[in-house]
Amino acid sequence: MSHLRAIAGIFKPQTIQFLAKHAVAGRNYFESRRFRSSGTAEPFLTGSSSNYLEEMYYAWLENPKSVHKSWDVFFRNANEGTPPGQAYQRPPSSSHFHSQGLAQASTKAEKMVEDHLAVHSLIRAYQIRGHHVAQLDPLGILDADLDSFVPSDLITTIDKLGFYGLCEADLDKIFRLPTTTFIGGNEHALPLREIIRRLETSYCGHIGVEFMFINNVEQCQWIRQKFETPEIMKFTNEEKRTLLARLVRSTRFEDFLARKWSSEKRFGLEGCEVLIPALKTVIDKGSEMGIDSVIMGMPHRGRLNVLANVVRKDLDQIFCQFDPKMEAADEGSGDVKYHLGTYHERINRVTNKKITLSLMANPSHLEAVDPVVQGKAKAEQFYRGDSAGKKVMSILIHGDAAFAGQGVVYETFHLSELPSYTTNGTIHVVVNNQIGFTTDPRMARSSPYTTDVARVVNAPIFHVNADDPEAVMYVCNVAAEWRNTFSKDVVVDLVSYRRFGHNEMDEPMFTQPLMYKQIHKQVHVLKKYSDKLLADGTVTLQEFEEEISKYDRICEEAYTRSKDETILHNRHWLDSPWPGFFSPDGEPKMMSCPPTGISEDVLQHIGNVVSSVPVEDFTIHGGLSRILKGRANMIKNRTVDWALAEYMAFGSLLKEGIHVRLSGQDVERGTFSHRHHVLHDQDIDRRTCVPMNHLWENQAPYTVCNSSLSEYGVLGFELGFAMVSPNALVCWEAQFGDFHNTAQCIIDQFISSGQAKWVRHNGLVLLLPHGMEGMGPEHSSARPERFLQMSNDDSDAYPEITDDFEVHQLYDCNWIVVNCSTPGNFFHVLRRQILIPFRKPLIVFSPKSLLRHPEARSSFDEIITGTRFRRVIPEEGPAAQNPDKVKRVIFCTGKVYYELAKERKQQDLENEVAICRLEQISPFPFDLVKNETEKYANAELVWCQEEHKNMGYYDYIKPRFLTVLQNSRPIWYVGRDPAAAPATGNKCTHLAELKRYLDTVFNLQAFEGRNF
Questions:
Q1: Structural domain count of the chain
Q2: 78 in a domain, yes or no?
Q3: Is the separation of the CB atoms in 716 and 679 below 8 Å?
Q4: What pLDDT does 26 receive?
Q5: Burial 588-624 (b: 16+ CB within 10 A, else e)
Q6: Strand, coil or helix: what is 629?
Q7: Phi, then psi, of 704 in degrees rounded to 5
Q8: Who contacts 899 (Cβ-Cβ below 8 Å, separation ≥6)?
Q9: Is residue 765 part of a domain?
Q10: pLDDT at 325 over 80
Q11: Which of 437, 550, 848, 1003 is most deeply packed, by most CB within 10 A?
């Protein structure tokens, strides 16, 4: 195919129009040369005028009549694919000589167009693949993309010119530059030799830029301008001195720790000391553009250095963490020093603006903190009204192996542009050691780069040699500007090395001998950069040595002060303080919980709004009309079902100024089509209404948002969101309770133990649909045994019962686990979550079949002013009137109560069998359980659950019952036998199991003669 046709095919229409538009001046020139009458191309094929032929072609594209008939025929044929040499057709009136001239001209024209296109392709090749040959590895032994192959379309040797049909003689020819490059600066044409040199400078030096996969022309052009513009990477002497000072602090901090605690693990930053000036550069640029709050998350490598030299945590508080004799001064078990986070407000010395830095605590589950940081950043933006993210910014620091290997990274990236989860761009910084613990990257990932996961959201990726501090500084400035300009994620890949092993006690030569032989010979980056600045006179040797001695003195003085510390204060390491919520000593300002009921007027008002459509001309689905009508009838009858109870709880909190956020898969409608918090207009696409936001004039906002199909990432996000303010009810609902399986890391590492490790209170609510409904082993059980096993109340110690025992017990626990059997109790537990004077995670085993069970209804009388959450709902029927005649007391929790109550009634045992419901399972209601067991002193005690014996609640409640009973009476188990799967997949077997345990629990002779 002719390359003239290729021009029309390769260039975008708007590009051709642009070129054609600017060919008018060329057309005037053509006319002045009288090429119309001569029909010859000679004037355009000699010397520097050869590119006028190209201008004539562009003019023809705009107007075919602007050129001679013979050229019109030639261009038309070429565009239609006529092979080279055949595109020309001799006009009838032309002579043989004239025909030969045009044929020669056509061949030269084709060659000229081919050469220009070849140069354009060459430029594009560097833009797309130049990073593959960039000099990124400071050690010079590995390739960052795991492949030493040089793409065949990149000019690295003269002989490769032939790939484009060019030769060495073409190197000095001048070629016009396309509008998709900035390598020319103010010049529009350059010799090929200079074009190649500039391309290699832009794309094959110490920076490798991946961006051509981005499907946005404006964004690609923005990046090209930042990296192709000649001499753009310039720094003032002052900027260079600042960079050197930051490198001094980063390097000398690690040296100081190594001297003082040579046998301690510290997960130092040696080999990537440039991370400190990199982060400070991002923060400086952010501050310059208006950012005043930065939330950061990172793994343990380099954390102490970041705490010291980026966040500016007091050095003596860091150093005292190394003292093994230090005792904890306050609550919690604490954590190792390289897991801790902190919060600090200070002045940015470059911009002289106030800035708040928060480094989130994180366990050794390296990337688990990623969505937590995003949630915290989103919450800060939300509460500050920073919808564009111009005040609050998040930075995530990653390790290379974890970034490629851990799925939560992918989940977090896919939250980045969702409306209810976006933080308007995150800057990701990868500390690329080019190795995992001992695992070579070729065994750790299948993609060329560790950063390839970022391509899924079109985030530009800037690879940079970490031993070139100025290149790092430039890239970090560009990254901050990108985030501010486009509100999108960006990745900075610091290609570095790890000077020691995974930790300082590890021997890396066992597994990477060749790499570490090179590392042992590697000159430190501080030495390299200081020598450079000394050589060019930017700093003097005296200034450099004074900078070193000044920071060494700071470290020594802090070390001396740290020796005066006698106790550790975990509260000094809070990453999310709540000013004004607690008293100065960190304790609640009061230790009581008021009643959680509300007035009937408020109940009626909420009910009336949510049983209607508060927007005019809004068409709802017919089925939804019936649901709203049913709600209206319940309000008239002063009753609530599960969905309405939730509405009442949320709506009343909104009235009191409490922001409510409900997130999770399909939560807007509800998995079981019971909630319908977002109404959809049936006639207008994407027109919605959220009735909860139409309750009161000055109410707090209600946020309800369907999430991506992610549990790990979304639960971490909601955890981070809940950290920002104690005056918010943040709920995450699993589509089914066992969906939390894939979020177990967040539950184990952050929710269950977060307060103990990091003094971090959190009021996050987990709503986990649970219940054996005969639907198979999946989505039946929310695995309550896991949560109960991690509860910290002592099964063997009967607590001292005081007037405020309930609230003190809640304060001492690590989380609250409930399984409510009535909508009213669900209403109360949600409101109690805010009204208690502290915050604890709340685990709710929410129902499925009870959402529509006719007996699962609550009267207004159960939720009006003066009422409160009932930890235990005792027997209230005939059996309670004559407790001495009761032969058996069945304790249970949740849905199984309704099955038990139905069977008891059918067997006419309402006088002989009492049923008592534990609504709050953990912390265990010792006092109320004791009351019930003493009330029925002559009765047998049975625990009945629908879960298998090795699951559910039995292993948790049995020792606590025995503590209450002081081992004087047994409590028998009735339920399904032990099993490996949480439920059977056979409906017939399910019903048989149900019948078996119902028959057993009401067989009053079932336990006679059995030993306890």
A1: 4
A2: yes
A3: no
A4: 39
A5: beeeebeebbbeeebbebbbebbbebbeeebebeeeb
A6: helix
A7: -125, 130
A8: 946, 994, 998
A9: yes
A10: no
A11: 848
